[in-house]
Amino acid sequence: MKKLRKLEGVKDDNTIPEGSKEANRMKTHHISFEEYKKWIENLESAGLIN
Fold first, then answer.
1. What is the distance between the alpha carbons of residues 16 and 14, in angstroms, rounded to a whole number?
2. How many of the other CB atoms lie within 10 Å of CB of 20?
3. Beta carbons of 10 and 29 less than 8 angstroms apart
4. In the predicted model, what is the mean pLDDT of the chain?
5. Could you tell me which of 3, 6, 1, 28 has the C-alpha nearest to residue 15?
6. Which of 8, 11, 14, 41 shows a CA-CA span of 20 to 30 A to 27?
7. Structure pTM?
8. Beta partners for 27?
């Protein structure tokens, strides 16, 4: 499995024009599958998801 390199910074995804009623800022994070799996397991062990 190919590991993703960690990104130095994360830019906002500007899909909705600034000043719009629905102007929500979102960030895109790139993580490896193993990091994602560990993150989900931590959420489950904390009782935050089933």
1. 6
2. 8
3. yes
4. 74
5. 28
6. 41
7. 0.45
8. 12
Amino acid making up residue 29: H
What pLDDT is attached to residue 1? 44
- DSSP for 1-50 reads -PPPPPPS---B---S-TT-TT----B-----HHHHHHHHHHHHHTTS--
With tokens 């089933």, the residue in question is 50
Read off the pLDDT of residues 13-31 as tens digits, 9 standing for 90 and up: 556 666 666 666 677 888 9
**pLDDT band with cut points at 50, 70 and 90 for residue 50:** confident
Pair of tokens at residue 6: 């960690």
Q: Which of 14, 10, 15 is closest to 28 using CA atoms?
A: 10
